[in-house]
Amino acid sequence: MSLTLHGISVSTGIVIGHAHLLSHTTLEVAHYVMPGHLVHEELARFDAALEQTRQELAGLRSNRPRYAAAEFNAFIDLHLMILADEHINLASRNMIEQEHCNSEWALKMQMDMLVAEFEEFEDPYLRERKTDVVQVVERVLKTLTGQPDHLPITTQPNAKTILVAHDVSPSDLIQLKPHQFAAILTDLGSAISHTAILARSLSIPCVVGLHRARQSIHENDLLIVDGRRGLVIINPSEASLSEYGLLKTDWEDEQTKLKCLKTTSARTLDGVAVELHANIEFPDDMAEVHECGATGIGLFRSEFLFLNRDVLPDEEEQFVAYRTVAEGMGGLPVTIRTFDLGADKQANKTQRVASNPALGLRAIRLCLAEPKLFRTQLRALLRASHYGNVKILVPMLSSASEINQTLQSITHAKKSLDDDGIDYNHEIQIGGMIEVPAAALTLDVFIKSLDFLSIGTNDLIQYTLAIDRTDDEVAHLYDPLHPAILQLLSHVIGGANKAGIPVSVCGEMAGDAAYTRLLLGLGLRQFSMNPSQLPQVKRCIISTDLLKGAAPMKKILRTHDSLKIRELLDGLNAA
Ligand code: PEP
Ligand code: MG
């Protein structure tokens, strides 16, 4: 009988294939007690397994696959750290010694305790790190139980195998690519897990958070995976198979057509030019930027360089990263955001406990509270500006005083470079993110003091509608079409255009083609998004007649009900 599971779409596409189940080692751990004279031997077995796992991870690190995402080494380092942590090795050893139990059991018990502790964290990013603990323990368990690398290698070039797992570690995920799995499904996972971040960089559909996939799917079951909607159909009917067969062909044709748009200029039917820029997290993301045909980097989220590490990147390391991107874009704009740490992105050294981190010491607030850290980054950014068209973007500004303090910090950083005789672009442009309603409502202050604006719709929606963007219990209330959001967008885009100051949108709205015509209608001419979304947005732009959309846009802006707005927007998109 056919069964449909719903999960979280991480990576899109349609695939029809057969399931291969990945064993979930931690669920199958035996427990036995041994005579005292064997404990010494058991400890040696435990130590050897840890050492072998350490070597495996170190090996992965030094032979980083060519296609690995930029985060790969950071993930491996994190896993090496967990492996070396005394809660894993020392506590398990003590348990073997005291209770004479087998290594697998001791390790599993320690893992369960740690996972329970991680689950107590309020911060979703920290809570999510429990999956890293489980993945490391699973790796050691596999070594202990003598299981070979659990990833089966498919040798057929066009394999249609869909991997089904309780969870997949990022390092395992990286190894899957050459084995040509068609899709990945997992029970666990969220849109912000490390695995999800990496899955997006692989070109295979991935659905996480399915909860019952490992339990409901049997080896070799026929599956339809609809990564666009986060759907999995187990043992589909003939009707579903033929329907999805057609959808899949359409999907593949569409992808091929989208690739052909790479060099097409983004211009509406009535001749209005639009800039399409890319959002990146690491310098290694540049290959995708070039592949999608972006004409600049609209948002380099520099804070990702600060995550998952004990020692924060110094000026030199940051300079090299920023210079690499600046040079890689060969004169095209590279907008680098000063670090937006805090809330769900905590760097070890800057971490503070806040009762409501999204409203706490985040982004520019943290920068101004940590002048040394900020100065280091500003010097690195300024130095990189000598090697390309670098612009500095400041997140979460909310008042004139914050703008002034920021500009002062930049002036001081410039002065220190002057004193050191180091080159930089003296005319470097400084922009501000509009992502707090206070900023949108006092737009004039921002226009007067800054060179450009970039609207962070992800946070603007979060803060305007009072909805935690990481809390899935209120996710249904997160509404980009809420009239309050449209009024703010209209005010900011219209105000900036009137004043002749460049304005872009770099939040998720910019990469969702469903909102492209709406944003164009509001006067937006610069979008920045994940490179994978750019071709679709470009396709929408080149089929848009702005004049035709003017009347429906007026109606949309006069409407106060978001359901009605959605209907009107559907009409605008269908025209
Ligand atoms: C935003 O808030 O829209 C944005 C682009 O920044 P981030 O998603 O990194 O908070
Ligand atoms: Mg933001």
Which characteristics define this entry?
575 residues; alpha/beta; 8-stranded parallel sheet; 23 helices; 16 strands; 46% helix; 13% strand; globular; binds phosphoenolpyruvate; binds magnesium ion
List the helices and strands and how they pair.
Elements: E1 3-6, E2 8-11, E3 14-21, H1 39-62, H2 72-84, H3 89-99, H4 103-119, H5 124-128, H6 130-144, E4 161-165, H7 170-176, E5 183-186, H8 194-201, E6 206-208, H9 213-216, E7 222-226, E8 231-234, H10 238-259, E9 275-280, H11 286-292, E10 297-301, H12 315-328, E11 333-337, H13 364-369, H14 371-384, E12 389-394, H15 400-420, E13 430-434, H16 437-441, H17 443-449, E14 452-455, H18 457-465, H19 483-499, E15 503-505, H20 516-521, E16 526-529, H21 534-542, H22 546-558, H23 562-574
Helix pairs in contact: 1-2, 1-3, 1-6, 2-6, 3-4, 4-6, 12-14, 14-15, 22-23
